[in-house]
Design goal:
Blueprint (H helix, E strand, L loop, with lengths): L1 H5 L6 H11 L6 H13 L1 E4 L7 H12 L13 E4 L4 H7 L6 E5 L10 H13 L4 E5 L2 H5 L3 H15 L4 E5 L8 H13 L4 E3 L11 H18 L4 E3 L7 H14 L12 E2 L2 H15 L12
Parallel strand pairs: 1-2, 1-8, 2-3, 3-4, 4-5, 5-6, 6-7
Helix pairs in contact: 2-10, 3-11, 3-12, 4-5, 6-8, 9-10, 10-11
GO cellular component, one term: cytoplasm
GO molecular function, one term: deoxyribose-phosphate aldolase activity
EC number: 4.1.2.4
């Protein structure tokens, strides 16, 4: 495995960043922008991962996921609500019958510093409570030490604990992996171990999703499908706050992986503040004016 991962082509950092910046300058016209906004809304994993989370807050978040704009029922639902394992049952009840998924962070999120048995118990608790998706974090220390087999074995064990009912998103915490080469290696490692999604970040560190690291992961899933026939999703998370940001990422998806990934089954945004901006921009397109600050909820 080490030989394969270190045999992957090295990343041209300058070229990668230049391409990401170039794609970010693409102009999106009004009709396409309306489509892109609705698509982005449908891709949001509406998230609350705070120590002060309460059942009431999770219920309110679930209601917002189902009806992001209560004044306009044509607004798409979000893809999912993402919560800690102990809030899964509350979230599941809040979105019942809507098609909105319930995702749960597990495996000692966000640091991932726990014994494997503890991590698997965390996953099983979330799945038993009804989680449709599990967002796990890799052991970055093991990865950076070159212990790829340990990381691989943990991912496969978590995948098994998910059973057949929950999809697995594997979080790399790209801001802690130091190099683009490491991000490429982690992407292939996660996919070979059975990840249904590869995800940039927890949103809990200084550097989270960037156009460049997301572009690199999109290249990885594209190449992985070309070689294996298996499609894997991508989820950038953390730091994506505006409609302009979201559209830049959608352009990256379309131009790198292709239209097959322009669907919330294969691409997600890990964000919460992003949804409010998408809703305000959506209303601006519909009415020609921006709403006041009380148009959207403060989550």
């Amino acid at each position: 495995m080490r030989r394969f991962l270190h045999g992957l082509p090295g990343v041209d950092a300058v070229g990668l960043e230049a391409r990401a910046a170039s794609l970010g300058t693409r102009s999106i016209k009004t009709t396409a922008k309306a489509y892109a906004i609705d698509l982005a809304i449908s891709m949001v994993d509406l998230t609350t991962l705070e120590g002060a989370d309460t059942p009431g807050k999770v219920r309110a978040l679930g209601a917002k996921a189902v009806h992001p704009d209560p004044t306009d029922r044509t607004t798409p639902t979000t893809a999912a609500v993402c919560v800690y394992p102990d809030m899964v049952a509350v979230a599941k009840e809040a979105v019942a019958g809507s098609g909105v998924k319930v995702a749960s962070v597990a495996t000692a999120f966000p640091a991932g510093r726990a014994a494997l048995g503890v991590k698997l118990a965390d996953v099983r608790d979330a799945v038993a409570a009804g989680a449709d998706e599990i967002d796990m974090v890799i052991d970055r220390g093991a990865f950076l030490a070159g212990d790829y087999l340990k990381v691989y074995d943990e991912i496969t064990a978590v995948k098994e604990a998910c059973g057949t009912s929950a999809r697995l998103k594997v979080i790399f915490e790209t801001g802690e992996l130091s190099t683009y080469d490491n991000i490429r290696r982690a992407s292939w490692l996660g996919m070979m171990a059975g990840a249904d999604f590869i995800k940039t970040s927890t949103g809990k560190v200084a550097v989270n999703a960037t156009p460049a690291n997301t572009l690199l992961m999109l290249e990885a899933v594209r190449d992985f499908r070309a070689q294996t026939g298996v499609q894997v999703g991508v989820k950038p998370a953390g730091g994506i706050r505006t409609t302009k940001d979201a559209i830049k990422f959608l352009v990256l998806v379309n131009e790198t992986a292709g239209q097959d990934w322009l669907d919330n089954h294969w691409f997600r945004f890990g964000a919460s503040s992003l949804l409010n901006d998408l809703l305000m921009q959506r209303q601006k397109l519909a009415t020609g004016r921006y709403s006041g600050p009380d148009y959207v909820t403060v989550d």
